[in-house]
Design goal:
Elements lengths: L1 H15 L1 E3 L1 H9 L4 H9 L1 E10 L2 E8 L4 E8 L2 E6 L1
Parallel strand pairs: 1-5
Antiparallel strand pairs: 2-3, 3-4, 4-5
Organism: Desulfocucumis palustris
Pfam family, one: DUF4258
Protein name: DUF4258 domain-containing protein
Length: 85
């Protein structure tokens, strides 16, 4: 199951890209990340840390990329939305 979720995140990122919430954009700036590093994490996830179900959405906390960073994402309308870094 974990591998299926990670593959789905990678597939959706390749096909439709991703969006950042305002909070994620603020954190990206504070942590000196750029969109290419975020894309690297989404295209090369290594581990599914946690799955949270809130309201009507399922949030996935993943770890990956060249620098093994963490992100929280939700899949909405076949687009990855990065919520927290």
């Amino acid at each position: 199951m974990e591998n299926d979720i990670l593959q789905e995140i990678t597939r959706i990122t390749r096909e439709n890209g991703f969006r950042l919430t305002g909070h994620a954009r603020d954190q990206m700036t504070a942590r000196k990340l750029n969109t290419s590093l975020v894309k690297d994490i989404l295209l090369n996830p290594r581990r599914l840390i946690r799955v949270d179900c809130r309201e009507n959405d399922t949030y996935y906390k993943i770890q990956g990329g060249r620098f093994n960073r963490k992100l929280a994402v939700v899949i909405k309308d076949k687009v990855i939305v990065v919520t927290v870094m």
